[in-house]
């Protein structure tokens, strides 16, 4: 029996449309093989939306996303919009999308693929076997806390303010996602905070510790964020699953990503309690190479796999895509950002065509 899904596509800016085109082609092929059909609706976000309607997240886009089964996002932003006021910046559209869909949990894997181990800037013996999942709280903390803004003091001096705030409910719900994720992986969870100087972090640590009694099969540890950043570079294999706040997760997930050698290889999933999730690569829009067929589409393709697994409950289809990517790399095909001696460099479109050939052979 054929299953049908409504998918909202948000190509965004820069290389976004190029990598999205590859991802959609891959999804269509796997869908045919697995008796899945997809009804795609494309919508505006980020700089493209600003140019079209002077709003980084049009209401129509948010409504379309809410009515879909899953949202596939490519990339947003670019130098063109950097000087705009904060409320008109592309990133404001992304934050609005997360808040509007109530996506409080961001899952960002960082796994060393054997074929790319030499691409890492760290020694192979340090990164070999690394397989980390960062669970980042996504709709609270300093990015959303109030008050915030730039204010004038009594003396007329300007003062910038941002508020880092979490409720017990916000901590508990991301904590449960993290414990359940750890249960499905290696059974180890490291909670990262700054409880030695931040009261909000002390509450975070207290709640995560209290939750641990409900998950006796998960080994819980705690690290301050500065030490965690150091440990990710010193000995990344000690980590299995990491849970942390919005700001700390933003930073640590990028550090974890670079252990793999290229941020262009990593997908992510943003999930809520119900409703559609958003699946996107962790890299940016790379406006300097947009339109040149140089973009690496593999993170976008792997985001499709995460969408199939976490958003649509189609793990077999997800595994076919992940296997095809591994085969492509094992056969020596690369984009420019991950090339190494003896490999064949292909453009964005050719990578997609080669993946389709591999899928059809399987």
Secondary structure topology:
Layout: E1 3-12, H1 16-33, E2 36-42, H2 47-53, H3 59-66, E3 70-75, H4 90-100, E4 105-111, H5 124-127, E5 131-137, E6 149-152, E7 158-161, H6 168-184, E8 188-193, H7 199-211, E9 219-224, H8 225-234, E10 241-244, H9 246-259, E11 267-271, E12 278-281, H10 298-311, H11 315-330, E13 333-334, E14 344-345, H12 348-361
Parallel strand pairs: 1-2, 1-3, 3-12, 5-10, 8-9, 8-10, 13-14
Antiparallel strand pairs: 4-5, 4-11, 6-7, 11-12
Helix pairs in contact: 1-10, 1-12, 6-7, 8-9, 10-11, 11-12
Description:
This protein is an alpha/beta fold and 362 residues long. The chain is built from twelve helices and 14 strands. A ten-stranded mixed beta sheet has the order 2-1-3-12-11-4-5-10-8-9, sandwiched between helices. A two-stranded antiparallel ribbon has the order 6-7. Strands 13-14 form a two-stranded parallel ribbon. Helix 1 packs across helix 10 (298-311) and helix 6 crosses helix 7. The longest helix has 18 residues, at 16-33. The protein is globular. The two termini are 21 Å apart.
The level of helicity is: 40-55%
How much beta, percentage-wise? 15-25%
The shape is globular
Unreliable residue stretches: none
Distance between the termini: 21 Å
Structural class: alpha/beta
The overall pLDDT average reads: 95
Largest sheet: 10 strands, mixed
Strand count: 14
Radius of gyration from CA coordinates: 20 Å
Order of helices and strands: EHEHHEHEHEEEHEHEHEHEEHHEEH
Spatial arrangement of strands, main beta sheet: 2-1-3-12-11-4-5-10-8-9
